[in-house]
Amino acid sequence: MLRLSRLTDYAVVVLARMGEEATALQSAPGLAHRTGLPEPTVAKVLKTLAQAGVVEGLRGARGGYRLSKPLPEIKLTEVIVAFDGPIALTACVDGGSGLCESEHLCPVRGRWDPVNTAIRDALEKISVAELAGHALSPAEADFRLAAE
Amino acid sequence: MLRLSRLTDYAVVVLARMGEEATALQSAPGLAHRTGLPEPTVAKVLKTLAQAGVVEGLRGARGGYRLSKPLPEIKLTEVIVAFDGPIALTACVDGGSGLCESEHLCPVRGRWDPVNTAIRDALEKISVAELAGHALSPAEADFRLAAE
DNA sequence: GGAAATGGGACTGGTTTGGTCCTATTTAAG
DNA sequence: CTTAAATAGGACCAAACCAGTCCCATTTCC
Ligand code: FES
Ligand code: FES
Q1: Among A113, A126, B41, B86, which is disulfide-ready with A76 (CB 3.0 to 4.6 Å)?
Q2: CATH code of the domain covering residue A41
């Protein structure tokens, strides 16, 4: 289905929620509660995002996570790469030789690169903020909490 | 890895090989031999391509497959859709509601659409011919055969 | 010192996918 | 008319992959 990891989807949801209070320090359990997603999953997502440098994690009691840059500056590619790895559409990786067994017979050898860059370019232009529907209103957020 | 099905890769290889003799009727075993790919796999790929209308299959002895249109007119999306299904990057399909359990809590709901169209547009512009490295020279083809 | 949080990774069940094989159907050749 | 060669279609199985959970170490505030 050419689908990306479900965790990527979750990540966007979590980031969107964080974007509503961009400066605040928010804990994983807290965010789980506010997004309605299961807590262990949110924790995992945040860990990965922290590794990628998209969010910044502060340890200790009263610790939590914080966006390391404003939502509109977070490119979608950053998130995707964090969870799905480098954006390369095929098994025959970009310049890499030696990995494909039928390489010496293959007319396509390496030719996927233009495709990959085309997709990277397309995704590069999209920020997470654009996916977030930038900020549900606070009222709407309250409604969601109530719905739980 | 955001990778597409390996069969898609094979398909492009096979199509590229067919493009070298675009009008000729070529059998699955023959193409398998010429591409160096295992025969059952090539057969499967061709069946799928036939269903998608990319190639045309003729039955019976002396049957075979033929491109249903010239290689440069075959868009990459056609091939991808044939093997990987519709190009939609997330589990939450385009307009479809009701499939996602946390939809009522989800700030992203449906917002992936722009991403999907961005990717579709990018892929739409690429033809299989562009990936094929359009035609190894006949000499090169002979070399390959000899190399087997 | 204890509680609360992140950091990092191991483990596992479920799903998906690739690859193979089998059978029916069609058509040309002998 | 029989046989052979090919496509059409689908069933099946093993392997790879992924999500989800859990566990333990580390850090920091109270
Ligand atoms: S299939 Fe691997 S190089 Fe072409
Ligand atoms: S995660 Fe499904 S609608 Fe957002």
Answers
A1: A126
A2: 1.10.10.10
